[in-house]
Write a structure and sequence with these properties.
Elements: H1 30-41, H2 48-80, E1 87-91, E2 94-100, E3 108-113, E4 116-122, E5 129-132, H3 133-139, E6 146-151, E7 154-168, E8 171-181, E9 190-192, H4 194-197, E10 201-205, E11 208-212
Parallel strand pairs: 4-9, 5-8
Antiparallel strand pairs: 1-2, 2-11, 3-4, 3-7, 6-7, 7-8, 10-11
């Protein structure tokens, strides 16, 4: 028979041709990979608009927190002294100073002592006006005759003095007898006793104190 009829042998495939396509992929260049990672994390490549927006957000939060601190500080002061700007009304034809009690049910008012702004705590149980020694020094009050006063910390030495002018709203008191009390230092206010309150008329009702001179 002719050789042309002889069946041909199947072509042998080399092992390389059978290797999966994924095995033929070249490994990534480590330098190229590091470069791409650096580009992605480099802050200089960040979006400038995004950075600006983040900065503005931080500033806005700082301003907001500052406003809240100011608000709550002011609110705390208003609760301790609701009479920072005392109200004067005409009652029965007379000018009357109307004070609101604070949350401790005390009557505190912002007034003036010898022209200087001061916080006054009204105390009908105190015989005389009592001034902390550090405040008396700031007000220029002169120490007079020594005496003694009983406080929560025991007996302390006091010194008599005179306040030339004491003001609460429309009420003005002159030549008020007072005591300088070192045991009250740091109180940031003075105690308004009967040596001042006896010069005015006052009535208390419904959490309010009405003062008329």
């Amino acid at each position: 028979m002719s050789n042309d009829l002889e069946p041909s042998k199947p072509e042998r495939l080399e092992p390389e041709s059978l290797e999966p396509e994924r095995l033929k992929q070249k490994p990534l260049d480590s330098k190229s990979s590091d470069s791409q990672f650096k580009d992605a994390t480099d802050p200089s490549n960040n979006n400038p608009t995004r950075s600006m927006g983040l900065g503005m957000t931080v500033i806005a939060w700082v301003i907001l927190l500052g406003m809240l601190v100011v608000y709550f500080t002011g609110e705390e002061k208003r609760q301790a002294n609701p009479n920072q700007q005392p109200n004067t009304e005409i009652i029965d034809g007379q000018q009357t100073l109307v004070l609101q009690a604070n949350r401790q049910n005390h009557f505190v008012v912002t007034g003036k002592v010898n022209g200087s702004k001061a916080m006054l705590l009204l105390d009908t149980g105190a015989t005389r006006v009592a001034v902390p020694e550090d405040m008396a020094q700031a007000l220029g009050l002169v120490k007079g005759r020594p005496g003694y006063a009983q406080t929560a910390n025991g007996q302390v030495r006091t010194y008599s003095t005179r306040i030339d002018r004491l003001e609460m709203g429309n009420i003005v008191l002159l030549n008020v007898a007072a005591d300088i009390n070192p045991g009250m230092n740091g109180m940031n206010g003075l105690l308004l006793g009967m040596s001042a309150l006896s010069q005015i008329e006052f009535t208390q009702r419904d959490g309010q104190l009405f003062l008329t001179q």
